[in-house]
Amino acid sequence: MLDFQEEFEKCSGDKSLILGNGFGRSYDKAFHEKCFSWNTLLDSCEIENISPLYSLLDECNLDFEVAHQKLNNAIDILSKYSPENKLIQDLKEQVQYLREQLIKSIHKSHPDSFSKKNNYTPIGFQKPEEGVAGKVEKCRTFLQKFSHVFSLNYDLLLYWVRGFKDNWIGEDAFGKDLVFDPDKTYPAKTGKTLFLFPHGSLFLFRDGYSAKKVKGYLHQPILSKVQENIEQKKFPMCISEGTGEQKLNVIKSNSYLWFAYKRIEECKGTIFTFGCSLVEKDSHIVEAILKSRCTKVVVGAFGSLEEENLRHQFSVAKQKLGSQIEIVVADTSNTKLWQS
């Protein structure tokens, strides 16, 4: 495989970045944490281990999105064959409960530093400045080299990095009133990195057809504010459907999500992906990349097994769309986002 870092360093022209769960795993590795792993989410959920829902999640290898898809499929089948069946309502309630547990468990899986005013020192570091600020600044410098940064994650890591110590980098298409205006034509070139979240996030919630964002400050960190909203039953906008088609349908129903998604198609130059598995449930992202104005895609892969899967996903999509965009897969295992 090619090396991701080398591909990035030799790339000239416009660059965009799409981040997946591997972004959180890179943080865990750099800071000696165990926070951003999907395998820890079920442990923090309030789901009894003898319940059918727990059994379903276990059967789905702890993949909340696959479990969500199976519940929706069951509802569709029952609605056609037994529309008066009481189980339909029960399953709908389970879907809502699963969403709420997903959101709550992601919230509980963030480091303490996301919810406390003071700096903290991760395990293995002696000084907060060395343990946090220096590494975060390294990541911020990397992110600002892209014209667009898209996050497919629900967590708050990218938000926290952007606004570290209230020193914000880039823009996010929200106005000063924290509302996204669907009628505003966002400038194609701002000179700053544009950060977008096409799958929603914990800090976003619906405002009719549009969206609002939660903003954290030094006196009230973002995770603390999100917790307050959840306690008031104001649940974040997180797109957790199980297939790419289902995700895309939900994205189309919201002006902000649709704007963020369509912006992928407007990217020029080279698109990089980092930490994105891009399996079938993210087929809509692969297709948006291949419909874009870019000339090359550098797909980040962690190991040979992921490489094979990613090559297959893009090969199938390229054939379907008749795309001529150059696709290369590059190894991210030696990429240092948080340190020199």
Instruction: Provide the β-strand percentage band.
Output: 5-15%
Biggest sheet features? 7 strands, parallel
Q: How many distinct folded domains?
A: 2
Mean pLDDT: 87
First-last Cα distance: 22 Å
Structural class: alpha/beta
The succession of helices and strands, N to C, reads EHEHHHHHEHEEEEHEHHEHEHE
Using the CA coordinates, give the radius of gyration. Answer: 20 Å
**Low-pLDDT residue spans:** 118-126
Task: Output the number of helix runs.
Answer: 12
Helix content: 40-55%
Q: How many strands in all? A: 11
The rough form would be described as globular
Question: Could you characterize the architecture of this molecule?
Answer:
- The strands form three sheets. The protein has a seven-stranded parallel sheet. Strands 5-8 form a two-stranded antiparallel ribbon. Strands 6-7 form a two-stranded antiparallel ribbon.
- 39% of the residues are buried.
- Residues 118-126 have low confidence and may be disordered.
- The protein is of the alpha/beta class.
- β3 (148-151), α7 and β4 (194-196) form a beta-alpha-beta unit.
- The protein has twelve helices and eleven strands.
- α4 (64-81) runs antiparallel to α5 and α11 crosses α12 (304-321).
- The protein has helices at 4-10, 22-31, 52-59, 64-81, 87-108, 128-143, 157-162, 222-231, 244-252, 255-265, 283-290, 304-321; strands at 2-3, 15-19, 148-151, 194-196, 200-201, 204-207, 210-213, 237-238, 268-274, 293-301, 326-331.
- The protein has two domains: 2-34 and 119-331, no CATH class; 40-108.
